[in-house]
C-alpha cells in the first residue's frame, strides 16, 4: 500500500463544476488526474446530483486553462503545499489533441456533449 504523506504535504483541491458548484478535496501529491477523477466519482458530493456522470473515465481536470492528462500527478504540477488549488472538473469523452489549432479547442459555448457533431 502507498504511504500516505504527512498532512502538511497533502494537496488541497477545490473542484469547480461547469455549473459553478464547488467542493473541496484533499489528495496526496502522488495522486494522478485519473486517481482524482476516480475518487471524486466514488465520493460524489451530495450537492452535485444534477452533474452526476456515468463513469469516472469522462471526468477531466482543467488546471490553469489546460486539461490534465490522466497520468499527471499533483506533485508534478509543483503546486504550493498547504494552499488550496482550484481546478475545474468537466465531463468530456475525449481530450482535445494538443497539436490541433488552438482556436478550435476554445469553445465559447458551455460544454454540451449531447449534440456535438464531429
**Which regions have little confidence, pLDDT < 50, spanning 5+ residues?**
100-112
Q: Would you identify the CATH architecture?
A: Roll
CATH class: Alpha Beta
Radius of gyration: 15 Å
Structural class: alpha+beta
What strand order characterises the main sheet? 2-1-5-3-4
Summarize the model shown.
The protein is of the alpha+beta class. The protein contains 2 helices and 5 strands.
Structure description:
The structure is a single chain. By secondary structure, the chain is α+β, with helices and mostly antiparallel strands. It has a single domain (8-91), classed as Roll (Ubiquitin-like (UB roll)), CATH 3.10.20.90. 12% of the residues lie in helices and 24% in strands. The protein has helices at 33-42, 102-105, and strands spanning 11-17, 22-27, 59-63, 66-67, 84-91. It has a five-stranded mixed beta sheet with strand order 2-1-5-3-4, covered by helices on one side. β3 and β4 (66-67) form a beta hairpin. The termini are far apart.
Helix-strand layout with pairing:
Blueprint: E1 11-17, E2 22-27, H1 33-42, E3 59-63, E4 66-67, E5 84-91, H2 102-105
Parallel strand pairs: 1-5
Antiparallel strand pairs: 1-2, 3-4, 3-5
Question: Any descriptors?
Answer:
single chain, 118 residues, alpha+beta, Ubiquitin-like (UB roll), five-stranded mixed β-sheet, 5 strands, 12% helix, Ubiquitin-like_domsf, methylation
